[in-house]
Design a protein that fits this description.
Layout (H helix, E strand, L loop, with lengths): L1 H7 L3 H14 L4 E2 L2 H4 L17 E2 L4 H14 L2 E5 L17 E5 L6 E5 L4 E5 L4 H10 L2 E2 L12 H6 L7 H4 L6 E7 L5 E4 L12 H5 L8 E8 L1 E2 L3 E9 L2 H14 L4 E8 H10 L13 E9 L6 H14 L3 E6 L3 H12 L1 H8 L2 E2 L2 E3 L5 H15 L4 E7 L4 E7 L6 H5 L2 H14 L18 H5 L2 H13 L14
Parallel strand pairs: 2-4, 3-4
Antiparallel strand pairs: 1-2, 5-6, 6-10, 7-11, 8-9, 8-10, 12-14, 12-15, 13-14, 13-18, 16-19, 17-19, 18-19
The chain binds D-malate and zinc ion.
The site of zinc ion has 5 residues, from β18.
């Protein structure tokens, strides 16, 4: 069997380790045949193609802990994996076949929802979509929403401190976490599954693991904050003349009803054209294609709030002022979903359009228009014909300044210039007091940027934390910190 051939080609300790892991996890808890393991070895963007001797699939926290202990005893590195939707190779294994993947996908229980405390205790392998639906059934809202929510799992979402569409109202993933359960690199379990809104008892350990990208511990479960479910929702798609006009519209919304703004997303005409071209049944419901678009969503738990009436008034005034050139407000749930699809399918459309370089950038909200203009100019100078596709979370200043290869060009040659392209964009970002890493994380793609952006005491502090928790460097090696 091919799987056995691969194991025997490796250090023989691994064969022994895999035997012990199989004994502990049972036959359903470990995959070793490459036919089964290969899908775990390629990331969503298809940037990394690694190899692994085994994918572990523990079904409980105790099994995760024992698997980690067995690996630690052999000095085997572990790459934790959820939905494998990272944009930066955060869950990618190395090419040398020396790292073991630990998938959390069999830990998929919602352990409980308390509608009085407004909390949900949930295991790491539940998809974000399933978690949202479970909250909805309890008449609550789990407000985290990202394009990959159908596949992304809670453990990965927390390990990367995902942001997404609703950050401007509810914050990032870390703002929703009250408690965590984590398996540490030596196999010890930290049970911090508290559901307190106030708890100043020493260091805030849970926040150390949120955003640590699996380098300090494996999140196995969490207690998340829930919110009242919206009773009224209004979604509009607007054509605007420029990113500056989009920003003016955001300001109008903030003056109109700040508490109701749930999402404020920017899309370029170039990005929308790719969605129309590559995604079936996706077409903006406006009279003509525009150079820039805004998707805005207002929501409130208050019944009878007439959000729609207010929004009509707001957009009417914006049209008179020339801020908005055309707009449509969804009339039904199906229309709302169709408008959101235009936004959510941006990444998929770009993937189908060819090779792409992603810049996940945060700048002060007021500087987004300048970012878009200046970054496009430097990229177009460097690679004539490059397709700049800025889009994303204008409401919180996080723009995905994605770059798609010139039409018909060689994809590999384009990707070979990824560092060069990211570096020129990041020069602009630095100048605008921004960050090169907003919500996707550092992963395997960007640790090389860390010394420049987080040099000196900050990086040294991060290294000390890593060394204190994972002295043998066995958790997600090669991610987040430069080697
Ligand atoms: C999104 O907001 O859709 C993802 O974070 C985007 C990406 O492809 O960069
Ligand atoms: Zn995003």
């Amino acid at each position: 069997m091919a799987g056995e051939a691969r194991i025997s080609a490796m250090d023989k300790d691994y064969a022994g380790l895999i035997g012990r892991l199989r004994q502990r996890l049972g036959p359903g808890g470990i995959l070793t045949d490459p036919v089964d393991t290969d899908p775990y070895c390629e990331d969503w963007r298809r940037l990394y193609h690694g190899r692994t001797p085994a994918v572990l699939r523990p079904a409980s926290t105790a099994e995760v802990a024992d698997a980690v202990r067995l690996c630690a005893a052999t000095g085997a590195a572990i790459v934790p994996q959820g939905g494998n939707t990272s944009m930066v190779g955060g869950a990618a294994v190395s090419e040398d076949g020396a790292q073991i993947i630990l998938s959390l996908s069999r830990m998929h229980r919602v352990r409980g929802i308390d509608p009085v405390d407004m909390t949900m205790e949930i295991e790491a392998g539940v998809t974000l979509r399933a978690a949202q639906l479970a909250a909805e059934e309890a008449d609550c809202l789990l407000p985290l929403s990202i394009s990959s929510e159908g596949s992304a799992q809670i453990g990965g979402v927390l390990a990367t401190n995902a942001g997404g569409n609703n950050t401007l109202r509810y914050g990032n993933a870390r703002d929703l976490v009250l408690g965590l359960e984590v398996v540490l690199p030596d196999g010890e379990v930290w049970n911090g599954l508290r559901r307190l809104h106030k708890d100043n008892t020493g260091y805030c350990l849970r926040q150390l693991f949120v955003g640590s990208e699996g380098t300090l511990g494996i999140i196995t479960a969490a207690v998340l904050k829930l919110f009242p479910r919206p009773r009224e929702v209004a979604v509009a798609l607007c054509a605007v003349a420029s990113p500056e006009a989009a920003l003016r519209l955001l300001q109008s919304c903030q003056q109109h009803d700040p508490a109701a703004i749930q999402a404020f997303e920017y899309m370029s005409g170039a990005g929308m054209a790719l969605v129309e071209r590559f995604i079936p049944d996706a077409k903006p419901p406006l009279a003509a294609p525009a150079a820039h678009y805004v998707l805005l969503e207002l929501a409130t738990p208050r019944q009878g709030a007439d959000l729609r009436g207010g929004l009509e008034e707001l957009l009417g005034a914006a049209m008179e002022q020339g801020t908005v050139t055309d707009a449509v407000i969804a009339e039904s749930g199906a229309q709302r979903a169709a408008i959101w699809k235009l936004r959510e399918e941006h990444s998929e459309a770009q993937k189908r359009a060819g090779a792409s370089v992603k810049n996940d950038i945060a700048v002060p909200v007021s500087r987004v228009p300048e970012l878009i203009r200046r970054a496009a100019a430097v990229c177009e100078r460097l690679v004539p014909g490059i397709r700049c596709v800025p889009f994303g979370h204008l409401g919180d200043g996080n723009i995905h300044f994605n770059l798609v290869q010139p039409e018909g060009a060689d994809g590999d040659a384009f990707l070979a210039r990824d560092h060069q392209l990211m570096d020129v964009v990041n020069e602009v970002v630095r100048d605008l007091d921004g960050s090169f890493s907003a919500e996707h994380g550092i992963g395997r793609l960007k640790p090389y940027m860390m010394p420049e952006w987080r040099g000196g005491a900050e990086l040294e502090l991060m290294r000390r934390i890593k060394a204190a928790l994972d002295p043998a460097g066995l958790f997600n090696p090669g991610k987040l910190l430069p080697q």
